[in-house]
Amino acid sequence: MQEMLQRRFKHMTKKDNIPLDSKTNGAWENVPDLILIDGGKGHLSAVHEVFVEMGISTDQVPLASVAKQEEEVFVPHSPDPVILPRNSQGLFLVQRIRDEAHRFAITYHQKLRSKRQTRSSFDTVPGIGPKRRKKLIQLYGSVKAIREASIEELSTVPGMTTALAQNIKEHL
Q1: Is CB count within 10 Å lower at the N or C end of the chain?
Q2: What is the pTM of this model?
Q3: Domains annotated on the chain, with CATH
Q4: What distance in Å separates the CA atoms of residue 70 and residue 2, rounded to the nearest whole number?
Q5: Secondary structure (3-state) at 44
């Protein structure tokens, strides 16, 4: 989280008294109206530490953190949380923002997990692209059968060379 915030704020313009980076692009130059962190006091402290390191005041960029159990809202320099009334629109908004952040994170991690589960050791063999991989699977039926084939057998496959067959044997 700290790294992401450092990347985010290094792009803001000098007009905000925040260091300018040469790679600025439109949206990164805008100062957020509020940064809302999901994670309570601990995460708030981590973010506030980044602000102090970068010379950003919470007057420039307001900062708050939401603790999930009682949905308390913490702000810097205040030991006590802000408790929003149970039926307030403000609380409902904070809950929806938090839920959307969770949905986004869960979807991202599911996508990563799905990619990891559909990969095989065969995908990392240098010189073997999708066409050769498909041809080998068609001829041998499985990665196990390809692994068990000799270099001579693999090199007889159309489009294969002895060097590529050796790569397969070394990486599978």
Answers
A1: N
A2: 0.59
A3: 2-88 (no CATH), 121-171 (1.10.150.20)
A4: 25
A5: helix
